[in-house]
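FIELD: query
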Amino acid sequence: MPHAKSLRAIGQSLEALGVVAFVMQKDGRNYLIRSDSFTDLAAVAEKKNLSEKIWDRPSLAKKTRELLKENGSLSFLPPYVSWLDAQGRRKRRKRQSAQATGTMKLSQLLRTVGRHLDRLEPHAFTISWSATGATIHYELADGQQISETLSMEKVRELTLRMRFQRRRR
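FIELD: result
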């Protein structure tokens, strides 16, 4: 699955959890996410199933157990990301206008960063995300290490440009 789709699906989950700042690391095929916002995640999981909180769907406890790690991070495995993507597609289809969701949403902004990464085809990457911007460290197949810092305005601009290109097709 392209990074753009994966990061949008993960972004939708993080939006539902109210996460604003995090560090995402691509670990093989998995995405590992750490955030100070996760300190109370175990308490949230006890009160209500995390998957229910994300997608308002019951009986997904097994998926939640796979997501939560002992060190307080979240690990998004490929089957779970595919499932999240399918849930997101279903939700977006139900909306009257998919374009009505602005470029301020974390999921859309992460999708843009994912599209950027898809073009670069990195071997591994780490994204440090905050309310002011994103820093992306990635390693290309030839071993070259690159670091980019994007302000939130730049990510929004790229998101708008991406949307405009899709409309012209």
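FIELD: remark
The first strand starts at residue 22 and ends at 27.
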